[in-house]
Structure formats: C-alpha cells, structure tokens
Design goal:
Elements lengths: L1 H21 L3 E10 L4 E9 L11 E5 L8 H5 L2 H10 L7 E5 L17 H16 L9 E6 L1 H12 L6 E5 L25 E7 L5 H13 L5 E5 L5 H21 L18 E2 L2 E2 L7 E4 L2 E4 L1
Parallel strand pairs: 3-4, 3-5, 5-6, 6-7, 7-8
Antiparallel strand pairs: 1-2, 2-4, 9-10, 11-12
Helix pairs in contact: 3-7
C-alpha cells in the first residue's frame, strides 16, 4: 500500500511538473496600429500568458526598449518570455500581459530634437487605448506598470512620474536620466509630491555609461524624500546585464499587481527643491551627451 501511494504521489508530482513545463505564453509580434498623431503606422508586440482568456482581466506591464531597438528587442535578445512562463506557471508572479511598443529613437517624448513627432501623445492617446481595448486588461493604476532600459529607462521614469495616476511602478535599468533632446528627470521630479509617485527602481551597472547619472538622481530622490530602490551591481550597458534584471522586474511588479495600489510606498518631505543632480538645468557629466547605444555598443557622434 505504501509503495502504491508513493508511486501515485510521484506520478502526480511529475504530472504537475509537466503541466508547468508545457504552460507556455504566446508572443504576438508586429501588431500594427495606424497613428493619426504620428501620421504613420506603428508596431508593437504583446505577450499573452498561457491560457489567456477574455473571460478574465489581466494586469499589464509596458516594457520600453533602448535606442536602436524595436518592439521585438525584448523577445529576441532576452529570455523574457521563458522567465514569464516559468514564474507565472509556478505562481511566483500573477498572470500578466506584457506590451513592448516600438519607440524608434525618439526618447518616448513629444517633438524630440524638434522632429515634429508627438510620440508621448501617441503612447497615451492611441497606443494604450488600442491595447487595453483589444486585450482583456484591468485599467486601474494598481494593475499597470512600466519599465525599460537605457532610452526606455528614461521613458519608464518619465511616464511613471509625469503620468503617475496611471502606473503603480516604474522600473528603470541603465537609464538615461537626461539629454538626447529630453528634459532631465532631475528637473522634472521636484514638481511632484512624493506621495503621488509610483514605486521606483533604478538598476545600473558599475561600468555603465550612466552610472554617475543614476547615482546623482538617486541622491536627489533621497533628498526630496521620494522612496525608491537603487541597485548598483557589476555590469555594463548590455543584454548580459539587462537579462539578469528581467526576473527581478517580473517579481517586483508582480508583487505590486498582487497587492494592488496599497503596495505603493512613498514618504513626504518638506523643504526646498534639491539641486544635487542638476545645476542650471545642465547635467554635470556632459561628456555623455552625443552618445547613442545600439545593440549594447557605444556610438559617439
């Protein structure tokens, strides 16, 4: 009898393990949306968790690529889909939809370098409504987050701060903090109350082009009383570093989705605006201006 029970338990465990292994999500690539704001067709890709059904609603994570990338960068160079499959199948993170839009090289802002293209308007007025009506997505703040690397890190910070009513978390890796036609986050952040902001993580390698920027920005957040997480570890500006971040992004944001908006933690602080990051609106390390990051390689104009 004991032997039979042991075999039954073993068979059951193997069946569960096999089910978890086979639980694969679907990456739908190169979906097209016509943008009236940009006057062109734009692409985006979407990860749908295993067993996706319109009978229930899912939280959504928007992930933004770096300069020189596109909507498929996360699916080509990273194990994001495999990480998401495994972590959702095991129950470590809740099921979620992941959206990766094409941001071109426009810093996710309006009128970058005076190009007359209003990407930020497109993102919030066309892309988000399209995605969140096409798929079964919960639309409250506690079920929506944004992350990105390099140029996309800037986009994640900007959107999380300036559109804080829409996002419960912003996770920025190897993030550009300012320049490249975009307003420094150091000159933006002080305009917002700490209690209004989403959760924030800055993660950057100690050999990154933007290590110093991230350190200064983190110090400014601290001076302003803005609760955040600053991770600096060994690494450069490449997919080796970013791929190691992916499970942490899913775990951090999955935790927020599980707990809801009440999980957002921030502190209030009085006093004048800190200027430890920017002086007269100009970054101290101006040598970093004019650098593009393409496929993890530094290209100086």
């Amino acid at each position: 009898m004991a032997a039979v029970l042991l075999l039954s338990c073993t068979d059951s465990e193997e069946a569960v393990a096999q089910t978890m292994t086979e639980a694969k999500g679907t990456v739908v690539r190169d979906l097209s949306i016509h943008s009236e704001i940009l006057g062109r067709d734009m692409l985006y890709s979407v990860y749908l968790p295993a067993g996706y059904t319109e009978e229930k609603q899912y939280p959504v994570l928007y992930l933004l690529h770096g300069s020189g990338g596109d909507q498929n960068e996360w699916w080509v160079y990273d194990d994001l889909a495999d990480d998401a499959d495994a972590m959702m199948a095991s129950g470590e993170v809740p099921e979620m939809i992941i959206v990766t839009p094409d941001g071109k090289t426009w810093m996710y802002i309006d009128n970058c370098y005076g190009n007359g293209l209003y990407y930020e308007r497109y993102f919030f007025e066309e892309l988000m409504p399209e995605v969140e009506s096409r798929y079964s997505i919960r639309r409250e703040r506690g079920s929506r987050a944004v992350g990105g690397f390099s140029m996309g890190g800037y986009g994640a910070l900007r959107y999380g701060v300036m559109h804080h009513e829409l996002f419960c978390y912003a996770y920025a890796m190897s993030s550009v903090i300012g320049g490249y036609g975009a307003t420094d986050m150091g000159n933006i952040i002080g305009n917002y109350q700490p209690s209004d902001l989403p959760g924030i993580t800055l993660e950057c390698g100690d050999r990154d082009y933007f290590t110093y920027d991230n350190r200064e920005f983190s110090a400014q957040l601290t001076a302003l009383g803005i609760a955040h997480e600053h991770i600096e570890r060994s690494g450069g500006h490449d997919w080796t570093f970013w791929s190691a971040c992916t499970p942490k992004i899913l775990r951090k944001i999955g935790g927020m989705f599980s707990q809801g908006t009440s999980a957002i933690r921030s502190t209030r602080a009085g006093g004048s605006k800190s200027h430890i990051y920017a002086l007269n609106g100009i970054r101290r390390n101006t040598m970093q201006r004019g650098i593009n990051i393409v496929d993890g390689k530094k290209i100086v104009r």
